[in-house]
Amino acid sequence: MRTAVLAIDDATLLAAFRAGEARAFEQIVRRHYPGLLRVAERQCRDTALADDAVQTALIRAHRYLRGKREIDNLGAWLRRVVSNCVTDLQASERRARPDGAVERGFDGEVGTVDESAAERDELQVLIDREIAKLPETYREPLRLC
């Protein structure tokens, strides 16, 4: 049985996933995970960060692929999503500061990281509220960003 599943191409698996077959996405992950991890590891040379990037990319892909958008080459598309996730995670790590470090807030005032985090959380709630007002076709791309 496993051989038959492996013989199914990505387009067929994607169509099955969109039709509600969760195991199809599991097969997509099994098929592409090793290559995606290699892409992430080459880009960041940190195994933990690479694994996080692949996991994040697969979560994003799961959400995005449920839609009816056409993907010409699923493997290439997934590699691009992983690459973007590595870049995002690396940027997040560069912005990270130890607890209590001084950081400029949204209003330009200097405060602690904890205060800035609270401001970011408040801003995120406002952003989420505004995004929720948009039509679904506009919301999904914003969520993926």
Q: How does this structure look, described?
A:
This protein is mainly α and about 140 residues long. The chain has 7 helices and 2 strands, in the order αααααββαα. The protein has helices at about 1-5, 10-20, 20-45, 45-65, 75-95, 115-130, 135-145, and strands spanning about 100-105, 110. The protein has a two-stranded antiparallel sheet with strand order 1-2. The longest helix is centred in the N-terminal third of the chain and has 23 residues, at about 20-45. It is flat.
Keywords:
145 residues, mainly alpha
Mean pLDDT: 80
SS elements, strand count: 2
Percentage of residues in helical conformation: over 70%
Low-confidence parts lasting 5 or more residues at pLDDT below 50? 102-107
- Rounded Rg: 19 Å
SSE series: HHHHHEEHH
How far the N terminus sits from the C terminus, by CA atoms, comes to 38 Å
Main pleated sheet: 2 strands, antiparallel
Quickly give the structural class.
mainly alpha
What's the arrangement of strands in the largest beta sheet? 1-2
Task: Describe the SSE topology.
Blueprint: H1 2-6, H2 10-18, H3 22-44, H4 47-65, H5 74-95, E1 102-104, E2 110-112, H6 113-132, H7 136-144
Antiparallel strand pairs: 1-2
What is the compact description of this entry?
This protein has 145 residues and is mostly helical.
